[in-house]
Specification:
alpha+beta; 119 residues; 4 strands; 3 helices; four-stranded antiparallel sheet
Length: 119
């Protein structure tokens, strides 16, 4: 992206954009596992499923179709760290059990709520 194009995009104050060399990554993974959180109702009763064999767009569409009107959805990429321990990278929203603290967490929560099934 050229600097001229970047100025046309509305940017949150804390968003950082840095031009990089696309060749600096050493590996790619195409067989991703996504963890989908369904938080239903006012008490946010949680149901979680892992989805594989799908793209992020397919998982997002499926989750939105599966969610009832009183359910919010969050989606994370499941991966293993250097110790082999499972962890999550949030792609849409955040853990519905967590209270947002940092600015980015408030934005992630807002995205998750805005993405609700009736939207």
């Amino acid at each position: 992206m050229h600097a001229a194009n970047a100025s046309a995009i509305p940017i949150m104050l804390s968003m950082n954009i840095e031009e990089v060399d696309e060749r600096d990554s050493t590996w790619e993974q195409h067989d991703s596992i996504f963890r989908v959180y369904f938080a239903q109702g006012i008490d946010r009763a949680i149901t979680t499923v892992d989805v594989s064999g799908a793209t992020f767009s397919e998982v997002r569409r499926w989750a939105k179709e599966e969610a009832s009107d009183d359910t919010i959805v969050a989606i994370a990429l499941v991966s293993l760290d250097a110790r082999g321990l499972k962890g999550l990278t949030w792609l849409l929203g955040m853990d519905p059990n967590d209270q947002p603290v940092a600015d980015i967490e408030f934005r992630m929560l807002a995205e998750m709520i805005d993405e609700g099934p009736s939207r």
